[in-house]
Amino acid sequence: MTPRERLYCLIDRKRQACGLTPADIPVEPMALAAREGEALVIQLRPFSRRGLGGVLHKGPVSLITLNDRRGPEEMRFSLAHELIHYWCDDGRAAKAFSEWRANEGAAELLVPRAVFVPLAAGEALARRGGLRDLEGDAPWLTRAAALFGVTGAVVKYRLRSLGEDILFSISAVQAAPDVV
Ligand SMILES: [Zn+2]
User: Which CATH number does the domain housing residue 81 bear?
Assistant: First the structure.
C-alpha cells in the first residue's frame, strides 16, 4: 500500500466513525475534531501573520489554534491539516513528508477523491478539453470550490494530485463501446 492509500484509508475510517460517506459534502472538520472528545481542544485567535493557518500543540490534552484572521474556507482547510498532524504525526516522519501528508489528507477529507475524480472527468469529457483547461477556468474552479467549501487553490491542488486518476477515468469512458 502506498503512503497515499494508507492515508486515504485512515480518512475513510475517521469519516465512518462520524457516520459520514465521501458523498457527504461539504465536510465539517469541526465535527471530526469533536469526536476526539476532551483530548483535543480547538481555539481561535488572531495571529500576527495572516499567512499562518494553524498550530498544533500535542500533549495529554492537545490544542489546535486556528488563525481567525483567515476566511472560513481557509480555516476549515487549516483545521483539517492540523487534524491530520494530530492523527498521524509521531515525531518519526521527516518534516517534508509530514507536511505533504497533512496537505494531502486535508484535501482528501474536504474534497474526497471518490467524488472529485468523476466530477472533473465528466467536466473534461463534456468540454472535450484537458485538465489544463479546467485549471484555467476560473468560473468552474469557483463552482467546484463552493461545492466542497474550499478555496479555488485546493481544487487546483486536487486537479494536480489526482491528475492520473482523472485521466484514467476519462480514458475508461472513452474506451467503452458505444451503447446504441
Ligand atoms: Zn503542517
Answer: 1.10.10
